[in-house]
Amino acid sequence: MSDTGRRIAITGANGFVGRAVSRALLARGIGATGLVRRGAQCEPGVDVRHIDGLESIAPDAFAGCDAVIHLAARVHVMRDAASPAETLLDAYRATNVDGTLAAAEAARRAGVTRFVLMSSIKALGESDPGRPFTEDDERHPPDAYGVSKAEAEVKLLEFGSRTGLEVAIVRPPLVYGPGVRANFLAMMRAIARGLPLPLGAIDARRSLVSVDNLASATIECALNPAAAGRLFHVTDGYDPSVAELARKLGEHLGKPARLVPVPAGLLRGVARLAGKSAQIDRLTGSLRVDSRRIRETLGWQAPQSLDEGLAATAAWFRSTHGH
């Protein structure tokens, strides 16, 4: 079947990754149906269908679609001081596990044949075991979000083998690109302002994936027969050190990064005192991801290099953050 005439549903089509997937589908002439809550803005050209939530999703939401790319997830739970860890995990599970299975069941009943879940490397862990993570590594999720993603993977694969729905799972590491938020945006802001960063001695290597590479790989998993029942890691294919990443960003921002070499142990000690251990562990720990399987099994190639992805992100930053 050629790309034309196909239609793929995207839950969470209004998000950072959802918008990139929508643009990539439309560029290939594939119909994109966005399943979002009322008031959510999607990319122009997306056929928008409103849903109230994943748990109550009806099969007709997926009518006419060949495949589903399931991006809707709970990434942050506002934690009030009174909530014990159990209810935090329950909040993640409701969307990420129960919501995913409800969407898969509705899709199956609508006649959809392929269901792609966007998971996260956090289903495996926060730092690698001294070598790049492979898809066959045991899951040791570090937090409630990671636990919910690990459970969703296991239950969805089991659902697929029980019902015949073709399931594929994509596990990205840190995703960046035009429109990126959170820590990556904070790092660009600091470099653009010329603030000194204590990252000069951090040689821990970390895998990244540009949002356009991730969109391309996810669509491949929705279309390629060989993806059925499989789990795939996706990266740009080159893992920079944290210091190298900051330097490359500085070059693309036209503002050399001011990197101060602070020993990792000292940085961690200061972070502990400031109550910022988790953030610093993420910078000083190595998190490399092996993404050979998707290239060998599906013949997928990343359309963008790390440098091209960083250049596009820096260009977006300069145009939107007034430099």
From TrEMBL:
InterPro entries: Epimerase_deHydtase, NAD(P)-bd_dom_sf, NAD(P)-dependent_oxidoreduct. This is Putative nucleotide sugar epimerase/dehydratase. Pfam families: Epimerase. SUPFAM superfamilies: NAD(P)-binding Rossmann-fold domains. One of its GO terms (molecular function) is aldehyde dehydrogenase (NAD+) activity. Coiled coil: none annotated. Residues 8-227 form the NAD-dependent epimerase/dehydratase domain. GO terms for cellular component: cytoplasm. It comes from the Bacteria. PANTHER family: NAD(P)-BINDING DOMAIN-CONTAINING PROTEIN-RELATED, PROTEIN YEEZ.
